[in-house]
Write a structure and sequence with these properties.
The structure holds 2 protein chains of 2 kinds. Helices cover 35% and strands 30% of the residues of chain A. Chain A is α+β, with helices and mostly antiparallel strands. Chain A folds into 2 domains: 62 residues; 124 residues, Sandwich (Immunoglobulin-like). Classes of the chains: A alpha+beta, B mainly beta. Strand 6 of chain A pairs antiparallel with strand 4 of chain B.
């Protein structure tokens, strides 16, 4: 330490007055930078304060308040579009954000599906299936699959009952949703939890 | 690709019966890799139509969430005999058809 001090001191002394001026200028320069930064920050802050009410007014007009469905989750109404899961986005897209009635659909599936590659699923919608009132289409959606859309089935009044059966792929334990659109334009929804021991998606997702 | 339409052996007039459709199809999800490690493109039956005497009875659009070799079941009833035709098309443009003639075995009133 001493050695270093001894080595350094004479050097600093020799630099002495000549470097004093440059030091001052450096300080001034730093002061300038800091003050400039503060001023610009203040400007930004004021700008944002002025701009905020504009955003607040603009938001409701671009994103109309829509009644969200209880099936997707009550909290989804508070989330922005970016925060919605692919399933919730698809649900909104299919129903066009129209109100969805829960019930009226019977979803039958094994409570515990051993094989996620193929789980039997039966969907029954309570409907008289007449020309005036029939089920137009049934959608099958998945909560956790990488692609939530599983299938869409269109029926006609020729079908005596609105019932379909198929086999689905499931990526792990989740809720399977069925959506039905009646000819009167009413949306029905139901979901059933399925436990899956062997997931269908082992490569990706 | 083979497709089958399965109906009960005896069909009665105006009595609901279940129609089962079985199609031999891999229903590729687009997430699977082949032996060389390259991605197998998505290939599902995006369009399926069942007609009876030129009336559309059932239509389906399947996604990747439907198992390989899809099995679909729906209900219909007959007031007259006729031809039940199945037509499907997948993402690679492959089309398939199956025809089943339905005859009524029961009281002819």
């Amino acid at each position: 330490m001493r050695k270093i001090n001894a080595f350094k001191n004479p050097k600093s002394e020799s630099m002495g007055e000549s470097s004093a001026n440059s030091l001052m200028t450096k300080r001034d320069w730093f002061k300038g930078v800091v003050t400039f930064g503060l001023i610009s920050r203040l400007g930004c802050f004021i700008g944002s304060q002025i701009a905020l009410p504009k955003d607040a007014f603009a938001q409701p007009s671009t994103a109309p308040t829509t009644p969200t469905t209880p099936t997707v989750g009550a909290s989804s109404s508070n989330l922005s579009v970016a925060q919605l899961t692919p399933f919730q986005l698809l649900f909104k897209e299919i129903t066009n954000s129209q109100p969805v009635t829960q019930g009226g659909i019977v979803l039958e599936t094994p409570r515990l599906a051993d094989n996620g590659h193929s789980a039997a699923l039966r969907v029954y919608v309570q409907s008289p299936m007449t020309n005036e009132d029939y089920v137009k289409s049934i959608y099958l959606l998945s909560d956790r699959n990488p692609r939530p859309f599983m299938g869409r089935f269109d029926l006609t009044p020729i079908n005596p009952s609105a019932e379909i059966s198929t086999r689905v792929r499931l990526n792990g334990s989740q809720n399977v949703y069925a959506l039905a659109l009646t000819s009167k334009g009413q949306w029905l929804s139901a979901h059933v939890p399925v436990e899956v021991t062997e997931s269908a998606c082992l490569d990706a997702s | 690709m083979v497709a089958r339409i399965i109906v009960p052996a005896e069909l009665k007039r105006d009595t609901p019966f279940e129609v089962r459709i079985l199609i031999q199809h891999p229903m590729e999800t687009g997430f699977r890799l082949d032996m060389m490690g390259t991605l197998i493109p998505k290939n599902v039956i995006h369009k399926l139509t069942v007609t009876f005497n030129s009336d559309t009875v059932f239509q389906a659009s399947l996604g990747t969430g439907i198992s390989a070799n899809p099995s679909l079941q729906f209900w219909m009833k007959l007031s007259q005999p006729g031809l039940l035709k199945l037509f499907w098309e997948d993402d690679l443009g492959v089309i398939g058809e199956a025809v089943k003639s339905l005859e009524i075995k029961g009281p002819q009133n």
